[in-house]
Amino acid sequence: MEVVILAAGQGKRMRSALPKVLHPLAGRPLLAHVLASARALGARRICVVHGHGGEAVRARLDAPDLVWVEQNPQLGTGHAVIQAVPHLSADSRVLVLYGDVPLIGAPTLARLMDAAERDRLALLTVELDDPTGYGRILRDDAGCVRRIVEEKDATSDERCVREINTGILVAPAARLRDWLGRIGNDNAQGEYYLTDIVGLAVDEGVEVVTVAPDDVSETLGVNSKAQLAALERMFQASVANRLMDAGVTLVDPARLDVRGELLCGRDVEIDINCVFEGRVELGDGVVVGAHCVLRNVKLGNGTRVAPFSHLDGTAAGEVCVLGPFARTRPGTVLADGVHIGNFVEIKNSRIADDSKANHLSYIGDTDVGARVNIGAGTITCNYDGANKYRTEIGDDAFIGSDTQLVAPVRVGRGATLGAGTTLTRDAPPDQLTVSRARQQSYANWIRPARKGE
Q: What is the C-alpha separation between 145 and 153, in angstroms, rounded?
């Protein structure tokens, strides 16, 4: 089977310079969702018909399994498919999809493909309470499909029909090529409608069958920001339901955003307004507090993330405590039992078992041993304006508050750095290292006063 995806529309109602099919849904372009469904079917070839903003679309989503065809000018859906015909094999079945219908699922499409066997034309149709704006499926007294009429060309009686055409269909490639060569543009829009092939199929005695989607949301397109937002919530609701079915506790399923892949173990709890991007893996018993953002993160069993934390490119072991208001950046690797507290930032660093940085610290390009305590206000000075250097802190070290470690520098095992130390040379193991000015008091000192007082 081969797939043709129509993605040439300008999307004027989106009011955006961004091509419509590149607008994001759940963190991915609309067209990316459609491509994923097509690939899930094992398509032999996927042909994308592009138009407005085609260069940007191709630059964003190009892949070896895609054939790109430009439609210029845009003269309707039938005309769009005609552009792809030279790239289709005569012996294949052709599935036609739309780049702005992102929720179409592979299971529904698989059933449509099955219905199209034995040289049939298979249409995906659905009944709507309000079919306004859609082409209507017209059947004869025996219930057989006779043709599709677009709303602008329909009579008042035809507009009362509730079964609508979604535009998604499967047709034999050889017949599709012949039908498209015979359709005209004698209609209210002056366009070449793909739907006109239905009448030609009926005239030739080709059986036309219909399949309903698993859910109506799979057939909904995006033509405005409001419709995009509505589909976003539908998508997230579906994700939330799958998570809860798998045993995840969501404090409020309506306030969850998964913009990638979220994998959860047993007894995971997620509070409100959390965003998950990229690939996120949460082990058994993980708790994620409210208003957190996790991107490309893996958390071990029993780890807790307190509210308002932002974790990016991070792997944490078991029974860690992160946050509130913690930030970890790419390259952060935390072992078991690590505590990263409020307003602590970690970047490209490895922290061993049971070490803690609980308050107001920056740890960058650092290797921290086990059972290390890092006091409030500590920073690693890892950048000299041109190059970055690493800091090494040995097991059981104690770093006093308001300490600066100027890399490259090493803190030995069991060393203690006094509060306020600026460390520019290695600190020996098991010793106290202090670097601070001598404290002095002046008995006769008078505080300056404002002039005239």
A: 18
Interatomic CA distance for residues 333 and 258, integer angstroms: 23
- Tell me the C-alpha distance between 441 and 19, whole Å: 69
Is pLDDT of 434 > 70? yes
Q: Which residues pair with 258 in a beta bridge?
A: 276
Within 13 A of 350's CA, how many CA atoms are on the CB side?
A: 7
Q: Pick from 26, 24, 78: which is nearest to 49 by CA?
A: 78
CB-based contact 428:444 (threshold 8 Å)? no
Q: DSSP E strands: which ranges in 144-235? A: 145-149, 163-172, 208-211
Are 35 and 247 in contact by the 8 Å Cβ rule? The answer is no
pLDDT digits (tens, 9 = 90+) for 304-363: 999 999 999 999 999 999 999 999 999 999 999 999 999 999 999 999 999 999 999 999
137 closest CA partner among 111, 170, 112, 162: 162
* Catalytic machinery residues: 359
153-175 average pLDDT score: 94
In 253-405, which residue ranges form alpha helices assigned H by DSSP?
Answer: none
Please provide the DSSP assignment of 379-422 as one string.
EEE-B-SS-B--EEE-TT-EE-SS-EEESSEEE-TT-EE-TT-E
What is the DSSP code (8-state) at residue 85?
G
Q: Give the pair of three-digit tokens for residue 179.
A: 């039908």
The Cα–Cα gap between 378 and 368 comes to: 13
Beta bridge partners of 250: 270
Higher-confidence position of 187 and 71? 71
